């Protein structure tokens, strides 16, 4: 089992497709492309943490139909567009506002993560090597050595695994402000 992370899929969101995701041409093409990309990387036994904004302006039926087609054991950290039509989907556990989890990397080392829809300047466990994964910004904020956007716009419109995310964090040029102020990376 591999753990993946994503956010801001915005299934059914015609205005987002028109404004920011014009490469897909239509909301239907957008949704089909994101479902295909998801299922290309995520297996049925894999875990996916969706960090909010699963859908927007989509009907309950559309949300349920998309959800049913996505591989994996799905968990939700609620985003600003996640109303009851999303919250009532059959997530493996009830949706949460944020989460603190530990995931083993490919070498078997435990990594602590703080998950939320929104980016934080500092977060629980910040000084204890906890990394922060978030969505909401649609790839508008640069990665830091401890935090990054896992949203669809920042990850080629597909969920991303921890090894890839750690490589991104390690390659980041900027440290979080609180660390940079102390000359740390």
Describe this structure in words.
The protein is about 25% helix and about 20% strand. It contains six helices and eight strands; from the N terminus they run E-H-H-E-H-E-H-E-E-E-E-E-H-H. A hairpin with a 5-residue loop joins strand 4 (about 100-105) and strand 5 (about 110-115). The chain starts with a strand and ends in a 5-residue tail after the last helix.
List the helices and strands and how they pair.
Layout: E1 3-6, H1 14-19, H2 27-41, E2 47-50, H3 60-69, E3 73-76, H4 84-87, E4 98-104, E5 110-116, E6 131-134, E7 147-149, E8 160-161, H5 162-171, H6 177-180
Parallel strand pairs: 1-2, 2-3, 5-6, 6-7
Antiparallel strand pairs: 1-8, 4-5
Q: What is the rounded distance between the termini?
A: 31 Å
Biggest sheet record: 4 strands, mixed
What is the overall number of helices?
A: 6
Radius of gyration: 16 Å
**How many E-type strands?**
8
Shape: globular
pLDDT averaged residue by residue: 96
SSE sequence, one letter per element: EHHEHEHEEEEEHH
Strand order of the largest sheet: 3-2-1-8
Low-confidence stretches: none
Could you say which structural class the secondary elements and strand pairing correspond to? alpha/beta
Q: What percent of residues adopt helix (DSSP H or I)?
A: 25-40%
Beta-strand portion reads 15-25%
């Amino acid at each position: 089992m591999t753990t993946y992370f994503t956010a801001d899929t915005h299934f059914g969101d015609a205005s987002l497709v028109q404004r920011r995701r014009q490469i897909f041409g239509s909301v239907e093409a957008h949704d089909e492309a994101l479902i295909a990309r998801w299922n290309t990387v995520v297996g049925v036994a894999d875990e996916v943490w969706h960090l909010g904004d699963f859908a927007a302006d989509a009907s309950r039926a559309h949300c349920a139909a998309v959800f049913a087609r996505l591989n994996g054991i799905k968990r939700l950290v609620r985003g600003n567009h996640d109303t009851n039509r999303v919250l009532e989907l059959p997530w493996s556990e009830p949706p949460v506002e944020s989460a603190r989890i530990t995931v083993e990397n490919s070498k078997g080392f435990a990594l602590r993560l703080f998950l939320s829809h929104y980016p934080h300047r500092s977060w629980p466990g910040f000084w204890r090597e906890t990394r922060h994964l978030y969505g909401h910004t649609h790839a508008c904020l640069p990665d830091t050595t401890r935090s990054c956007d896992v949203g669809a716009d920042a990850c080629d419109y597909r969920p991303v695994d921890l090894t890839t995310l750690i490589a991104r964090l390690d390659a980041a040029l900027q440290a979080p402000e609180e660390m940079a102020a102390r000359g740390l990376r």
